[in-house]
Every structure is written in C-alpha cells, then in structure tokens.
Design a protein that fits this description.
- The protein is α/β, with parallel strands linked by helices.
- The chain has two domains: 2-117 and 298-318, Nucleotidyltransferase, domain 5 (2-Layer Sandwich), CATH 3.30.420.40; 129-294, ATPase, nucleotide binding domain (Nucleotidyltransferase, domain 5), CATH 3.30.420.
- The chain is built from eleven helices and ten strands.
- The protein has helices at residues 33-36, 44-65, 85-102, 111-117, 163-173, 180-188, 213-224, 233-258, 274-287, 296-299, 304-313; strands spanning 2-7, 12-19, 23-31, 75-81, 106-110, 131-136, 141-148, 151-157, 263-267, 291-292.
- The protein has a five-stranded mixed beta sheet, with helices on both faces. A five-stranded mixed beta sheet has the order 8-7-6-9-10, sandwiched between helices.
- α6 packs across α8.
- Bound molecules: 5'-O-[(R)-(carboxyoxy)(hydroxy)phosphoryl]adenosine and zinc ion.
- 5'-O-[(R)-(carboxyoxy)(hydroxy)phosphoryl]adenosine (KG4) binds at residues 10, 137-139, 164, 167-168, 179-182, 185, 268-270, 272-273, 300-301.
C-alpha cells in the first residue's frame, strides 16, 4: 500500500508518503519551535493556526518529494488523537477532504500507536512479536506489551509527569531554550552524572509505574539552594538525565522479568536521547534480545510513523468513515 500520512497532533506540521508501512518515500516536517520559543512552551492557538496555514503545502511537498500524486495513493492516514484539539482538527479535516475528493480510504491513527510502529520504518529488520515498547514523549511515558499489530496493552504508565515534560521543565529552570530535552542533553555532555544524587522513584517490587514529579521538585529545590553555587549547570543536567534514565531502565528490566518478549523497542521524542538509547541497547545486549531504536527523525513526531501504523493495523475493513472526528483524549486501545 502507498499511504499518505498526516500528523498535526501537537506543534509539528508533518506529512509523509510511505510504501508498505516501511519504505519512507518522503518525510516532511515543519517545526514550529521558533513561534513558541518566546513563550517557553507550546501555545495551542498558535500551533493550530500554523498547521492551518502550512498543511496544504506540506501535503504537496510530501507528494512531490516522493515522486507521486494523490491519484497513485492507496489511502490517507491521519492522527485523530490524542493531542491538542485545535491542532488535530486541522489534520483530520484535511485528511477527510482529501479522502472525499479522491474517493480513497481514510485511516485514523492513534498518535501513540504511531510512535510504536516508528521502529518499522526504513529498516530491513523489524521487531518480532511479542515485543516490549518503552514509549517516552512530551505527553506520555508508558510501557506497552505489543503482542501483535492489533493487540497492544499498556502495562505501565507515569503517575504524574511524562519523561519529556520533566526534561522540558527542568531545562527551563536551568535557563535553557525551548524545547528543553535536546538542550539539556547537550549541556549534560560536559557534566558529571554522579555529581548530585537526585531521587529515583522505585515502586514496590513487581510494580511498573513511573513517576518524575519527585525528581523534578528535587531539581527545583536543589537549584534554589546554596549547594547549587558549588556545582556547574552541566553537572545538574547530567545528574538529572541520569536519574530519568535509571528510572526508565529499571522499569524496562522489571517488565522483562515479568513477561516474555522477543525484542524491545524504544520510541517517542525522548528516544532521541543518546544516553537513554545507549542504556536501552545495553539492556538488550545483556538479555540477548534485539533492541530497536528508530532513527532520530522517526523518534520525534513525524507523519511516516502514522502511515506505518495505519499499514500495520489498517486493512480495508478498518478504514474509517468520513464522519471521523478528532479526539484529544483518544484512548490507547
Ligand atoms: O514525541 P514527541 O516529539 O512529541 C510528543 O508526542 O510529545 O516528544 C517531544 C518530547 C519533548 O518533551 C522533548 O523535550 C523530548 O521529547 N526530547 C528529548 C530529546 N529530544 C526530544 N528529551 C531528552 N533528550 C532528547 N534528546
Ligand atoms: Zn509524539
């Protein structure tokens, strides 16, 4: 199948053309960071307005770069949730209009399913089922048992903040520019991860839930304390990043002890973090399991992953009606 993917759930206006859920013929993304940076976070109204003005051109761009046309497509895949309602509506309305105008099938995709199937893009070796996925983004942090393309089970969630949110908020306290995660990672390169013993959330044995609010608060108190004067911002960044990575890796280890999997997959924007990706790969090596970490451009929000997820889940029976609506709180399963 040749699918056009459209992703506008947050602040990236993204389109892609993907063949058979795997070969990425084009992957276009217009980053809105410059428009949100001065507010220190994403402003939903700005995001939806930018999507509205950019999306038509982004669709054309994806088709031209892929050397194809609307007529050649087998369907249109779009993120229908979860996300910012105003942003989602722009993508869903555009996808519906294209599907109506071309009489092609419409496939609604859950944004989080998209992140899971990013691991199938532009690679000859794909994760075998069942696999364990650690999905870490700005809005979500969860462990998912992926039994098959249609059988996805969330086995752990964060009790409070998402990992990316914790990165972003602490980066802001450190005076780093938005988006904070990548900036904090760059600063951490020159720091000592053992400089400050930030707390690691450990639930009772066997439990898998995640939490980052205690860590975030601890970083805030530390930065406001006298002790902060004796430590470099790079040490704070490295120690904070180490605490997040430890918590995530501990929960992956626990989940692997509690279940039986043939591979592990890391996905979501925070998967772009090299320290986390390195630790994740080491878990795979020690346990003799293949570890899949998508290319950086497929970790952060993109439309190729939406087309990939539609392909894996969407045979003809699963096409969606043109009455489809965006759902900011779309449940995972
Ligand atoms: O998946 P994504 O692009 O959007 C959501 O669905 O949320 O994830 C964005 C999140 C942001 O919180 C960003 O700071 C974080 O991923 N992020 C990183 C890195 N790159 C992106 N966090 C830590 N290290 C990175 N290199
Ligand atoms: Zn995302």
């Amino acid at each position: 199948m040749l699918l056009l993917g459209i992703e506008t759930s947050c602040d990236d206006t993204a389109t892609a053309v993907v063949r058979d859920g795997r070969s990425v013929l084009s992957n276009v993304s217009t980053n809105q960071d410059a428009f949100h940076a001065k507010y220190g976070g994403i402003v939903p109204e700005i995001a939806s307005r930018r999507h509205a003005s950019l999306l038509s051109a982004a669709v054309d761009d994806a088709l031209v770069r892929a050397g194809t046309s609307l007529d050649a497509l087998d369907g249109i895949a779009v993120t229908s949730g979860p996300g910012l309602i105003g942003s989602l509506v722009v993508g869903v309305a555009t996808a519906k209009a294209l599907a109506f105008a071309t009489s092609k099938p419409l496939y609604a995709v859950n944004h989080l399913h998209g992140h899971l199937f990013a691991a199938f893009l532009d690679t000859d070796v794909t994760p075998p089922y069942p696999f364990l996925a650690l999905l870490v983004s700005g809005g979500h942090s969860q462990l998912v048992a992926v039994e098959s393309a249609r059988d996805l089970r969330v086995i752990a969630k964060t009790r409070d903040d998402a990992a990316g949110e914790a990165f972003d908020k602490t980066a802001r306290l450190l005076g780093l520019p938005f988006p904070g995660g990548p900036a904090l990672e760059r600063l951490a390169l020159d720091g000592d991860p053992k400089a400050i013993a930030f707390p690691r959330y450990r639930p009772e044995p066997g439990a898998l839930d995640l939490s980052f609010s205690g860590l975030k608060t601890s970083a805030r108190y530390f930065l406001a304390s006298d002790a902060a004067r004796d430590v470099s911002p790079a040490d704070v960044a490295a120690s904070f990043q180490a605490a997040i990575v430890d918590v995530l890796i501990d929960r992956v280890q626990r989940a692997l002890e509690a279940g039986s999997y043939r591979a592990i997959v890391l996905s979501g924007g925070v998967a772009a973090n090299m320290s986390l990706a390195g630790a994740f790969r080491r878990v795979g090596e020690t346990r003799g399991l293949p570890a899949f970490v998508p290319e950086r451009r497929f970790c952060t929000d993109n439309a190729a992953m939406i087309a990939a997820a539609a392909e894996r889940r969407g045979d003809v029976d699963l096409r969606d009606p043109l009455t489809l609506t965006a759902d900011p709180n779309l449940p995972f399963a």
